[in-house]
Amino acid sequence: MTAFSNHRAVSLTLDEQTTRIKGFVSRRHFIRELTLGDDGPWTLTLQLTMTERAAYRFNLTSETPRLFVRGGDAGEPPVPSAITASQDVAGSWMDGEQEVLEVAMPLAIQAWIEAYLSRHGEAPPEGRKKKRKGAGRAREITP
After folding, report:
1. Contacts of 113 (CB under 8 A, 6+ apart)
2. Is the pLDDT of residue 127 over 60?
3. Tens digit of each residue's pLDDT (9 = 90 or more) over 53-71
4. pTM (2 decimals)?
5. φ/ψ of residue 6, rounded to 5
6. Is the torsion defined by CA of 10, 30, 87, 112 positive or negative?
7. How many whole angstroms separate alpha carbon 100 and alpha carbon 119?
8. Are 44 and 103 in contact (CB under 8 A)?
């Protein structure tokens, strides 16, 4: 029996849409095609991590699950460098002023993530963390 892999090669093709409004040209880049395997112009590795399990579940239960690709510095032509199924990770890329392209998640990837979650369990609920005994309390000082 082979071990369950937490990474998959994904290929993508980028495209650009140019719009002219009142003399100004606007360019929008997007993912035209995404396929499994490493035979496209851009190949990235989608890797699942235990710390992002809650984000994967949130994405899978959305109306349209998405994959997110880090495309490099905002305002520059995209150079795909990473891919994730976690909206949290994509958000941190955007916070770092990186362009993020998104695309609908293929059913094969959805099934693979579901299998990962069933194999490794859902993320544990984030409850209150226990403090060590006496932490945060004033101690009585005897003279």
Report:
1. 48, 56, 60, 85
2. no
3. 999 999 999 999 999 999 9
4. 0.79
5. -100, 15
6. negative
7. 29
8. no
Residues 29 and 78: their CA atoms lie apart, in Å, by 7
What length is written for the chain?
143
Task: From 46, 63, 47, select the one nearest 12 (Cα to Cα).
Answer: 46
pLDDT(135) > 60: no
pLDDT given at position 1: 37
Tell me the C-alpha distance between 113 and 66, whole Å: 12
Identify whether the C-beta of residue 14 lies closer than 8 Å to the C-beta of residue 32: yes
Q: Can you tell me which residue has the tokens 């349209």?
A: 64
Measured from the Cβ of residue 121, the count of other Cβ atoms closer than 10 Å reads: 10
CA distance 25 to 131: 57
